[in-house]
From TrEMBL, chain B:
Protein name: DUF4439 domain-containing protein
Residues in DUF4439 domain copies: 11-145
Organism of origin: Micromonospora gifhornensis
SUPFAM superfamilies, alphabetized: Ferritin-like (SSF47240)
Top-rank taxon: Bacteria
Organism phylogeny: Bacteria, Bacillati, Actinomycetota, Actinomycetes, Micromonosporales
Pfam family, one: DUF4439
Amino acid sequence: MVLTCPVAMGRTTRRDGSSPLSRRAVLRAGALLALGGAAAPLTGCSLLDREEPPRPDPLAPLIDESLRLAAGLRAAADAHPDLAARLVPLAETHEAHATELARVTGTALPSESPSGSTAPPPPEQPASRAATLSALRKAERAGRDSATAACAAAPGDRVALLGSIAAARATHLEALK
Amino acid sequence: MTAPTGTEDPLAAALTAEYAAIWAYGPIGVRLADAERKAAVEAEDAHRSRRDALILQLSTGGAAVPPDRPGYALPFPVTDRASALRLAVEVEERTAAFWRAVLPASTGAERDRALSALIEYAVRATRWRRAAGIAPLTVAFPGRPG
């Protein structure tokens, strides 16, 4: 991550101010370069060491996604009680993923139950069983793909957990067939 | 094939797991019929492909290639369809664990291959669980030890 600063500075100065990259763009470039390593410090970089916004952990979106997937499964289980035995264990898995991701990233999960406020309001006319399962499969497929991408980009100490999360979401896709 | 120990080369360990998986599908396959036997043959083929790729990769890289053994101890006797399906679940879940252990030290294409194996074996374990009537169909952290 030593490259973060020189690369970003080089890009701003080389352009002679004709079309300078905004400070935000420089920070974004820095953030992109930093993705490979956890918490790359920008210390010693006088151009950028002021007003640095807190950078969210790259895994934060995955925590939100786990909670969303869990909420969707719980809402579907409420709408179709005959599916609850299949769906609730899958929701519990996503909640376990969120808990583990929060532990690894040192963040706090929302205090209320994930099945509470984050769940979409139940539709007046519940979707059919088949449509519900199809929507859940679509969500799990997207979740598998985002966990796979996160696994490819993660530092070594997180990659096994992300691999298990990608695999779990893939098995959900199978279990929802 | 028990569980990855973390002290040896994870690719060599994955190779020993693939040897054992291929061996185990012998007694599994003979207890299954029709679509389930076909699924067992496909599973065995997948383990053979990964075995061959690992042997090539390890020998090309100059690493020690662990040898196959003439036989492996099964965790329980396979006497009928039910025990064959249970063993198939175990084989897939255990080999998934060995590929998960490859992930931390891997990068690029090697990491992609390890993740593909972990996902594929976890999904196959779920299919075998369904065939065996085992609930739940999934585990929360596929491949994670204990």
